[in-house]
Design a protein that fits this description.
The chain is α/β, with parallel strands linked by helices. The chain has 14 helices and 18 strands. Helix 2 links the parallel strand 2 and strand 3. 47% of the residues are buried.
């Protein structure tokens, strides 16, 4: 059994806390901490009413390593599940090194002044985690996270040679708002404003934002315009599968979303440089926009539909070319009924707790800093079936 600290009380933190409480046989002491304690208290109250499980709550400024260290020591924490802002990855990781505590996150480290960051900031802490006799598991949400596990599964169990990977992510849901983001607006919009990037024939290739668009058919859901974007798991997948000929990530957006996105971009609302908006008060246009857009958690009131996220893996099996489609479908209403959070939060929080569970049980355990695709995919997929995110595998094409 393990003592678990969950940092972050947004939608993903809510799902993570619910799922940890559903696995009380593994997590004997569950602690939820955030800058705003009232959010933690609300989640704890809902869990007590629905599941009869009590969790502890704290106010925590996770930007400061010493604050995290103090809470880890106070509650004798074994695993930190970090599902707050990626700006906080590094101070939390350093706190885990100092206390020899296992660490998990769902997104790579970013800095407030540069959204175009890579895993090197975290990979370089590998020796520090080894010296502390503990581990860090990076990117254990859905994308990154489950998508990388899907790639690992295809490489180990479906194909003899994995040659091409295409990741497709589409939210077929409708929240009834003209424009909103499904997780932290600042992080989401910074990410989408970056140039597209993909791996092909041994090198990285860059595109203008939203330059490459395709019509893609999502199994059981239908066709949607999908745009090639840079997504962080591509970096780790290419590192751990060096023989890949191609690796690409596509995300779908509605025409309505793109209309508002382009309008906001064209008037400079995605700029991250602070400007003076009144005497002595500076804020970046993007930070201002994040304040006026709907809180992602408020979207649950009217959310309907499904998400469809999966991987197309191409390669050879027994000398024949084969293509497999591995995917998951999540229903917004079912996720909200279970946890009070929509699918975008649910599909991130559930894998995070699965990762914590596998670390607690030492099924996934190796000292140092690691990405999810370095471990056996089967136990992870088995847990996904148990925890509410079943995986489907389809043989799409078979050629001689």
């Amino acid at each position: 059994m393990a003592n678990l600290l969950i940092i972050g009380a947004g939608g993903v933190g809510r799902v993570s806390a619910f799922k940890a409480a559903q696995n009380k046989d593994i997590f004997q002491n569950i602690v939820l901490a955030s800058r705003t304690k009232s959010k933690c208290d609300e989640i704890a109250k809902d869990i007590k009413e629905k599941l009869g499980v009590e969790i502890k709550t704290y106010a925590l400024d996770a930007n400061k390593k010493e604050n995290v260290t103090q809470l880890i020591n106070k509650e004798n924490i074994d695993i930190v599940c970090h599902v707050a802002l990626p700006y906080q990855n590094l101070p939390i990781m350093h706190a885990c090194i100092e206390t020899s505590t296992a660490y998990l996150d769902t997104a790579l480290a970013e800095t407030e002044d540069n959204p175009d960051t890579y895993y090197d900031l975290q990979w370089e802490l590998d020796e520090d985690f080894k010296k502390a006799n503990t581990m860090a598991l990076l990117g254990c949400g859905f994308d990154p996270g489950v998508t990388s596990v899907m790639v690992k599964y295809a490489a180990d169990y479906l194909l003899d040679e994995l040659e091409e990977v295409e990741i497709y992510d589409c939210n077929f849901g409708d929240h009834g708002r003209h424009f909103a983001t499904n997780f932290d607006p600042e992080i989401n919009l910074r990410e989408l404003n970056l140039p597209g990037k993909y791996w092909e024939n041994g090198e990285w290739k860059t595109t203008k934002p939203f330059e490459i668009q395709v019509k893609h058919s999502y199994p059981e859901c239908g066709e949607a315009t999908s745009i090639l974007i840079w997504h962080e798991e591509l970096e780790s997948i290419v590192k751990h599968f060096p023989n890949l000929k191609s690796a690409k990530f596509y995300m779908c957006f509605s025409d309505k979303y793109l209309y508002h996105f382009n309008a906001l971009k064209n008037v400079g609302m995605f700029d991250i440089e602070p400007i003076e908006v009144c005497e002595g008060c500076k804020i970046s246009p993007l930070q201002f926009l994040a304040k006026v857009l709907p809180d992602p958690q408020d979207l649950v009131k009217n959310y309907k539909g499904q998400t469809n996220i999966g991987v197309i893996a191409k390669g050879k099996k027994d000398g024949k070319k084969k293509t497999f489609y591995i995917y998951n479908i999540c229903d917004h209403q079912k996720a909200i009924e279970e946890t009070g959070a929509h699918c975008v939060s649910y599909t991130t929080g559930v894998p995070a707790i699965i990762g914590c569970k596998l670390m607690a049980e030492k099924i996934w355990w190796k000292e140092g800093v690691h990405n999810v695709e370095e471990f056996d995919a089967k136990p992870f997929f088995e847990e996904m079936d148990k925890q509410g995110l079943p995986i489907k595998v389809v043989i799409e094409i078979e050629n001689d």
